[in-house]
Structure formats: C-alpha cells, structure tokens
Amino acid sequence: MLIICAPSRSLLNGGFETGDPPSYWLPNAGPTLSQSATDPHGGTYCINAVRGTADIVAYQDVILVIGVGYTVGYWGDNVDADNVAIDIYQDGWNYVKGVGASAATSWTEKTTTFTATSINYRFCLKVTGAAGVVGRFDDVTLVVTP
After folding, report:
1. pTM, 2 dp
2. Closest by alpha carbon to 33, among 12, 18, 44?
3. CATH fit for domain 2-144, picks 3.30.9.10, 2.40.128.20, 2.60.120.260, 2.60.40.150
C-alpha cells in the first residue's frame, strides 16, 4: 500500500487505533502484529510486535515532498527484545537513518529529523533480538519540521 503524504500529514494509523493487526502497516518476515489495549502510551491501543525472522517487523510506504524537512517520532517499549526502533528507507530498501533505539522496558520517546531527498520513503518498525521477542510501539508520527 502506498500513501501520499502532504507536507503536514502524519503516518496513517500511527496510534494503532484501527484494525487488528493494525491497518496501513504491512508485515515483514513473518512477525505477529496485534493491537493491544494493555497499557498503551496514548489512546486506547498500541501495537505488540513479535519478531519473526528479521528485525524489520512492519512498514508503511509514504510519498514525501523533496526538500521538505520532517520529524519522525515514536514511543517504544522493548518488553523482552534487545531494543525497538524505527528505520527510515528511501526508494525501497535504501537505508537513510534510524530513529533512536530504545532499550527501555517502559515507554520511551525517540525522535529524529531529516530532509526528503526523494519522494519514496519507507518507515519501518524494528524489533531486535531472537525470533519471538516482543516490542511495542505507539504514537508514531511524521510531521513537517518547522
């Protein structure tokens, strides 16, 4: 699924309030993705992501505006994973940068900024550790940097 993102638009369903597994987030490498009402950071739900065979457990493709600065943020809880993070890719799987890894076993906020140099971006939820470890994400945002 491809999402066209106006300069001020956030990622779709970044609070994981819609769908189980959450809508607009595509699974990668056999994870188990589930909506959870147990201790979300904000709203009613968060996403529990059980790692499959790769660190990237889910992603969302977005079209951005070249030359515009963006801030990406999320709240993460590594539960029993080594850490959770968001990785940013462009034009498929070309790595751009990561949004700080969280190794905390409670909700921790991480953010980063970047300027779009392409229109095609992929925002990936990442859970590191052995297959079967759990990480949680909530309130994933993408906004124009003022």
Report:
1. 0.91
2. 18
3. 2.60.120.260
